[in-house]
Amino acid sequence: MERKILKVYKPGAIVEGIYQSCGDKFGFLITDEFHEDVYISKSDRLNALNGDTIEVKIIFSYYGRHRNEGAVKRIIARANDTFTGTFKKTRFGGEVEPLDAKIPIIIDVLDGDTKNAQTGQRVTVKIDRWPGRRSNAQGIITEILGYEGDAGVDIDTIVAEHRLPHIFGNKVLEEAKSLSEKIIPERNIEDYRNLQLITIDGADSKDLDDAVHCEKTENGNFILGVHIADVSRYVKKAGELDKEAYKRGTSVYLSDRVIPMLPFKLSNDLCSLNANKDRYAVSCIMEVTREGKIKTKKITPSIIRVSRRCTYPEINQIFEENIISEELKPFVPMLSDFRECTEILRKERIQRGALEFDFPEYKVILDKEGKPLRIEKRIRGISERMIEDAMIAANETVARFLKKTGNTSVYRIHEIPDNDKIKNLRKLMEVCAIPIKIPEKVQPEDLQKLLRYVKDKDIEYAIQAMTLRSLQQARYSTENEGHFGIASTCYTHFTSPIRRYPDLMVHRLIKDALTKQKSKSEREKETEFLVKAVEHCSETEQNATQIERDVTDLKITEYMTAFVGEPFDAQITGVTSFGIFVGLENGAEGLVHVNDMEDDEYVYMEDTMLLKGKYSGKTYHLGMPLKVTLVKADTEKKELDFIIGELKSPLDMFNEQNTKTNTKKKKKKLKNKRN
């Protein structure tokens, strides 16, 4: 991380911020304005832990290594009170050492609070007494995860470290169990059971929340229907299911499991749009013109009945290989209309500047014991794009509908890119001699033009990666600020209420707009809730994304342990002052540390974003192909270490060492002669 220290404080000044731990030795105070603003030694950290909000008194300041040094005077707020660690029995009960090296404490557990944990087991522990200068923290074991090496414990540990709720309480399960399975036609609920509806999902999907139908009209336009499971029918505001769904915010999809937002009774049964079952839905019926313009026909609660559950591979076979099963033949005319319609939608979206990244996705396949068997590359085919196009169209249509109500709503926003990050992108473009200009007020079409230019070139991955890094993170908001990546002026999330709480809120807002007239005080109360909820849901989404990434990194690292010592073809995906990051064809990424680049002394050239040999002039840059050898796979840190080239045999290493020794002797002899 780039370190910026922009201010020197006066000795005695009091500063507030976040404590960033660097292990047991020292840490930094992070303020809103500056990064690593104040150095804090081990003896001056009081009992602050990583992430805590603290108050620091400046001890002294100078224009030296740290500029500001301070001592923690007060802990304003604790970041966390629950940690994951390894349990060890003691004569008084036990103690837990956190797995996170940034939490360098020991937590004592009294005999009655151990839950009968055994030495060596991984546990979660909640602190009820914080550490003092001469005393350990004290806590209570809340969950026993199991022994390291047990099936699933490694992922259980990651889930626990991120404090992800993953067990449904009795009240939640009882409320789910009490729900009626009867589907009863009602007034103001459209009946679409006569339509030829299908779902298209992955073969292993169980929470099916979207169904589609499409038909071409006489004037050449299309009627496109997107029908979404009506979760709001079952999950009522302030109920036990609702409170739990809000807390979780989203379902989390990991290598060996799904941690659902809702109990399986709803996610896999009552709400899932299973074939040949009547289901409640919220339907968005659109007319799509030949130019890709969308007219809203109807947004309404409905009853539907899916005629066929389809999978991505079998639909791809129809359009990519002309392989059609007998069972699917009756659906081919509708599917052909659907494909034509979505191609028009995609073309219109691209014309207005929507960005399309072509990063491959990878899935680690595990055995029954949770051990990785292989890494599969996910290829997005025609059917995946068809569903994506239909869902984007429905999300935009619903967002425009909600905006017209004039009431506070939930939007999915993606703000314009950060200027500093765009500068880095421009710098890389200059290094790569790309003859395209990115203006100060960047628009989606500017970046789209860039991505088109580098398509299928050696630098494509590097430019795509830097472009992605320059973008803001999409989030939820009650203010409509548009979606930069999709080049949309109004966007929301409507299509996945089984697995995303914001979509559930949107369904409720649709029903309110169709049926209710709320008072001013009711609107104000709802706005207050929505403002808080969108921030919470953005946070739970980020947490879920990080957990999914951590689990994937862990399993990829575990898979690669079998290949330590083997060479691979790679591409440089990042260049830093401490080395180069490389990516393999199977999705694995790791670091070649600059200290392991022994053929020269390499210097990071910030202006040109490359590493350059001080004596040889050899350079390493983004996108450059390399032959590398894996030398370490650290599953604890989820990190892979590589060296450039292939490992040398013992004989080659011996000869190389002799050559170096002889060269040194010759240089010394020559120097002595000159003297």
TrEMBL record:
Q: Name one GO biological process term.
A: mRNA catabolic process
What lineage is this protein's organism placed in?
Bacteria, Bacillati, Bacillota, Negativicutes, Veillonellales
* Listed PANTHER family: DIS3-LIKE EXONUCLEASE 2, RIBONUCLEASE
Q: Where is this region: Disordered?
A: 655-675
Q: Report the family membership.
A: Belongs to the RNR ribonuclease family. RNase R subfamily.
Predominant place of localization = cytoplasm
Its annotated compartments are: Cytoplasm
Residue stretches making up the S1 motif domain: 565-645
Reactions this protein catalyses: Exonucleolytic cleavage in the 3'- to 5'-direction to yield nucleoside 5'-phosphates
Name the keywords, alphabetized: Cytoplasm, Exonuclease, Hydrolase, Nuclease, RNA-binding
Q: Tell me the protein's name.
A: Ribonuclease R
Record's superkingdom?
Bacteria
Q: Which PROSITE patterns match?
A: RIBONUCLEASE_II (PS01175), S1 (PS50126)
- Per the UniProt record, one Pfam family is RNB
Biased composition of type Basic residues is found at 662-675
EC number per UniProt: 3.1.13.1
List the record's Gene Ontology CC terms alphabetically. cytosol
GO MF annotations, alphabetized:
exoribonuclease II activity; RNA binding
| InterPro entries for this protein | CSD2 (IPR040476), NA-bd_OB-fold (IPR012340), RNase_B_OB_dom (IPR013223), RNase_II/R (IPR001900), RNase_II/R_CS (IPR022966), RNase_II/RNase_R (IPR004476), RNase_R (IPR011805), RNR_Ribonuclease (IPR050180)
Summarizing the function annotation, the protein's role is: 3'-5' exoribonuclease that releases 5'-nucleoside monophosphates and is involved in maturation of structured RNAs.
